[in-house]
């Protein structure tokens, strides 16, 4: 493991943070225009299998223990930071990664900062840090536009219907109570395309979501898997979805229909109960419920493409735990996997004709101070080095689900990434 030195200093507002990201491999975390952007790389770790999150946590702990951090700003995202993305399934052939950039430029609560990270050695790691002027990274001009039209993939409408019907049969036999079935779409933006165009379009169209880009995984997720700031823990659970209406009246009707839907409320209850149970298992206090609260009733979260049933969970970080402990405990949520987890996960492998890779897995960042924010990687796509794009969207299957409705539900979930990639009409 490298010995690292990280130094964070305040800077004047740099404006558009995406200008500093790498065009072909951006490292980004944004919401409402604020967040962090990384560039370069001083270390990258790849992990796989059942212990992928555990092994990443151990590697990060070793790096933090040997590193030196000088942070004059002390806001979420300052200091020594790593970006990360983990596969949905332990059996995935895709890598789970943590990567530490050479620099992080960020803006949080009106405070802008620059972190410079370098490899040092044991001889001078405890010596004084030279005082040098703050120099911003170079602004990188926009490259070729990343555009493509997404086309259906391996999970055709017919195969999706068959998978949903098989899932319903197994639910009827009592194997599980809920399972998420997803489908895929594909496109090609070309190897030299500037991936920042995708990130920018998502961030502008969906400012209330968390826009992420890590190791070719790009999206705008509405679902916060877990956030740790200090000792404060927050998670947002989404389960139960209907498309937005075409006009005001239709939209109001869709909102009411979701609020009154027994099927969607049952799906949401599975997800919230699963998340609370996972968090409570980590709590070693004498009263495991101390500080852990959830919305008594789900609220309706409106995004440009869909309405979601949503619940927020709040609590206190258990003693001796880290943000990656919580990520490991919560993933996969019932909102993207199923209930019970140990039955639904193998069934997903059987019913879906593809590797989900990092779709619906955890994506986010963590810092040496213990802070971190991780979303469920939704409303996005994997963009390979050669420009191949693979997008996924899914829906929860419970007793009473209708195959045609479930297929239709995935359409609006593709919309954010499809529109971010869509070729612009000539002026």
UniProtKB/TrEMBL annotation:
Pfam families: Chorismate_bind
Record key words, sorted: Isomerase
Claim: Ribonucleoprotein is one of the keywords in the record: no
EC number: 5.4.4.2
Reactions that this protein is recorded to catalyse: chorismate = isochorismate
Superkingdom to which the source organism belongs: Bacteria
Domain Chorismate-utilising enzyme C-terminal: from-to ranges: 157-413
Family from the record: Belongs to the isochorismate synthase family.
Family matches, as NCBIfam families: isochor_syn
Descriptive protein name: isochorismate synthase
Organism encoding this protein: Gulosibacter molinativorax
């Amino acid at each position: 493991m490298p010995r690292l030195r990280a130094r964070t200093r305040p800077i004047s507002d740099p404006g558009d943070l995406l200008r500093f990201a790498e065009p072909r491999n951006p490292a980004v975390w944004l919401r409402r225009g604020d967040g962090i952007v990384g560039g370069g790389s001083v270390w990258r770790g790849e992990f796989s299998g059942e212990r992928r999150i555990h092994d990443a946590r151990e590697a990060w702990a070793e790096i933090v223990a040997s590193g030196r951090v000088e942070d004059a700003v002390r806001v979420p995202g300052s200091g020594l930071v790593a970006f990360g993305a983990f596969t949905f399934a332990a059996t995935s052939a895709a890598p789970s990664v943590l990567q530490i950039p050479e620099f992080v430029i960020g803006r949080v609560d009106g405070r802008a900062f620059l972190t410079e990270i370098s490899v040092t050695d044991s001889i001078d790691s405890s010596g004084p840090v030279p005082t040098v002027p703050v120099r911003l990274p170079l602004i990188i001009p926009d490259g070729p536009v990343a555009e493509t039209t997404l086309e259906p993939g391996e999970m055709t409408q017919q195969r999706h219907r068959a998978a949903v019907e098989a899932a319903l049969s197994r639910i009827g036999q009592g194997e599980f109570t809920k399972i998420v079935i997803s489908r895929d779409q594909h496109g090609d933006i070309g190897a030299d395309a500037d991936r920042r165009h995708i990130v920018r379009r998502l961030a502008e169209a969906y400012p209330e979501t968390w826009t992420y880009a890590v190791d070719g995984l790009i999206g705008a997720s509405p679902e916060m898997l877990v956030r740790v700031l200090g000792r404060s823990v927050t998670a947002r659970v989404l389960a139960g979805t209907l498309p937005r209406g075409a006009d005001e009246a239709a939209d109001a009707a869709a909102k009411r229909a979701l609020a009154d839907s027994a099927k969607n409320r049952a799906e949401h209850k599975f997800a919230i109960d699963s998340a609370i149970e996972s968090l409570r298992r980590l709590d070693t206090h004498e009263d495991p419920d101390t500080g852990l609260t959830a919305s008594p009733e789900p609220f309706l979260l409106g995004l440009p493409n869909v309405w979601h049933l949503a619940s927020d969970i709040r609590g206190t970080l258990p003693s001796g735990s880290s943000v990656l402990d919580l990520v490991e405990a919560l993933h996969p949520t019932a909102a993207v996997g199923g209930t019970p987890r140990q039955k639904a996960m193998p069934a997903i492998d059987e019913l879906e004709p593809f590797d989900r890779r990092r779709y619906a897995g955890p994506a986010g960042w963590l810092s040496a101070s213990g802070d971190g924010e991780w979303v469920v990687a939704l409303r996005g796509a994997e963009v390979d080095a050669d420009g191949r794009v693979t997008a996924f969207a899914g829906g929860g299957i419970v007793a009473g689900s209708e195959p045609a409705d479930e297929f239709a539900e995935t359409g609006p979930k593709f919309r954010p990434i499809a529109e971010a990639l869509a070729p612009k009409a000539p002026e």
